[in-house]
Amino acid sequence: MPHVALVPFTGFRIREEEMLALGMTLPGLKQRASAVAQLPALGLLTLAGLIPPHWTCSYHEAAHVDDQLIDEVMRERPTLVALSALTASVEEAYRFSALLRQGGTRVVLGGLHATACPDETRQHCDAVVVGEGEPVWPELLSDAESDELQPVYRASTPYHLRDSPIPRFDLLGDRPRPRFTVQTQRGCPLACEFCGASRLLGPFRTKPVENLKRELAAITAQVHKPVLELADDNTFAGGRDTGELLETLASADTRYFTEVDWRVGENTDLLSGLAASGCVQVLVGIESLVFRYPGMGPKQAELPRIMNAIDAIQAAGVAVIACFIVGCDGETQFSLDRLAKFIELSQVADVQLTLQTPFPGTALRRRLEREGRLLPDRGWSHCTLFDLTYRPDAMDVVELELAFRDLVLRVFAPPESARRQAIRKRVWQNNPRLRPCESEPFSST
């Protein structure tokens, strides 16, 4: 029987040594790194749900290439190895592909990076999937079986999510999972300059609730009251019936985390059912206090309005992680000090700080490339969200790197982390889905 080995390169990556050391010692960063590292690779698990009955498959999560991974995959004697990797891990995937191909094993690679850089990716594998994988997957497997693999597979039309299979969560094995991933939509109706997420794979679409119900049933069959991370770019940004979505999530008896924008806090109908649906925490992008990114559309607003909306979300029992992008145009030591003071005075339940990162395929990268500001000695493995890959406009490279580390130390210092933990506890007292004794329902956020 033909066999396909599915290998996602997952995990939390930081290149810069001092930031890596900080990330391993500051509790907030360490916990988030652990959660990210253990999130299932939803893309490959979904493709596994489309594998024909006469094929067999295996799933091999990997953070890095080593002899154990090679031996584990090659023991399966695969007809094809399918790799997925984000930009920060794609060079690791290229290295693994080279080792496999030396032994005659055929390799296909897809995902966001492969879609943004197909010509580059083709140099490192036998086939590359550009865009969504589901429409071309059956043809690709058929070609692999008949030894007629094509160099590029590209869908001619967007994939309709009503045809989505149930992801093969059974391939995850018995290892406990802090969270499962579920996608309720693909793409985003907004076009923020820095965004390199699933909007690169096609237009914005929502998944029918009947499909979502089947996926949730598959998860709850394995885990009682699971914790979910919705793999959406902006869960409530579209025009779908949010009431039906909330009812579906509530009926599955889950707790979940997702990404939204601040406008949720002004939607009274949505707020009234958000916590009851199982939502415990959301990430909201405030982005920058000094720069207005193009493409944010109705998400763009004055800071007081955004903060009032965040207060409303937390009053409804849902904790907010406020996300800030550091290093945009106009950033200075003064602006970073102002950001630190703003965070210290704010009542947000948690904070995420990342360095501006020009991912391939984004308008931000195209702009910085035109301006000659990309650092030539920092390749894809530096695209971690915590390593600087471009020349700032108002600071030099070393100044921004040092300032970012100082900001992280200040914002995630033990007293500040304890203060935000107390805020989360107060917020969650208003969440009807949490027991009073549950002080940290997302211990790995």
Describe the protein.
The chain is an alpha/beta fold and 445 residues long. It folds into two domains: 126 residues, Rossmann fold, CATH 3.40.50.280; 250 residues, TIM Barrel (Alpha-Beta Barrel), CATH 3.20.20.70. Helices cover 36% and strands 15% of the residues. It is built from 16 helices and 14 strands. The strands form three sheets. The chain has a six-stranded parallel β-sheet, sandwiched between helices. A six-stranded parallel β-sheet has the order 7-10-11-12-13-14. Strands 8-9 form a two-stranded antiparallel sheet. Helix 9 packs parallel to helix 10 and helix 13 runs parallel beside helix 15. The longest helix is centred in the C-terminal third of the chain and has 15 residues. It starts with a strand and ends in a 17-residue tail after the last helix.
What does the secondary structure layout of this molecule look like, with pairings?
Layout: E1 3-9, H1 17-25, H2 27-37, H3 42-48, E2 56-59, H4 67-74, E3 80-85, H5 90-102, E4 107-110, H6 112-116, H7 118-122, E5 127-130, H8 137-145, E6 152-154, E7 180-182, E8 185-186, E9 205-206, H9 209-220, E10 227-230, H10 242-251, E11 255-260, H11 268-274, E12 279-287, H12 303-315, E13 319-326, H13 333-345, E14 350-355, H14 363-370, H15 397-411, H16 414-428
Parallel strand pairs: 1-2, 1-3, 3-4, 4-5, 5-6, 7-10, 10-11, 11-12, 12-13, 13-14
Antiparallel strand pairs: 8-9
